[in-house]
Amino acid sequence: MGDNLKQVKKYFLLVLMLLLASLNFNLILKRLSIVTGGTQGLALIISNVLNIETSIIILIINVLMLLLSIIFLDKNTVYGTIVSTFLYPFFVRLTSNINLVFLNSTPLFFLILITAFLCGVTGGIIYKLGFSNGGISLIPLFFKKYLNINIDITYFIMNTLIIILGIFTFGILKSFYSVIVIFINSIIIRLILKRKRL
User: Fold this and answer.
1) Phi, psi of 52, rounded to the nearest 5 degrees
2) What is the pLDDT of residues 108-131, one digit of tens each?
3) Rounded to the nearest 10 degrees, what angle do helices 108-128 and 172-194 cross at?
4) Among positive and negative, which fits the CA dihedral 30, 35, 41, 42?
């Protein structure tokens, strides 16, 4: 019974973090065109270039990465990835029309700090649970499993490369904000992963 309760708690936290991440994406990241890397960053870039709904792009990337995780990762990670693969794009679509008016008058610097904190907390907790939020965030798990490279280091490098792509789409200033967000959220992820328990 204790193991079942732990599993329920893990999946509940996973769903909660995915919902929070989707709210962060729609309310701040997408609205400000801040490419913080990951699947959502790629989705913003592709959506801007091809004019395709971001939730559809996220779903396509997630399904492709799910297939790779089935081949290369353990079954518990795959189970969590299955949930993330379909639930995160669903939450992105579900929360796409929410608008919190007070965010319109919030200074940009505070929005950047808020989104960095939310990215770090949601990503860190999801990784700490042994899951990922799907998509290309699985790549750090591949590197950890097969090359023993820390998740936060791979996460930082991968997302920096995506930001470089973002420079050509949204400009240098937005990319500068993205670097700040990634730097802060990488620190938060590392702190969460170093904790013994959640």
Assistant:
1) -115, 145
2) 999 999 999 999 999 899 989 888
3) 40
4) positive
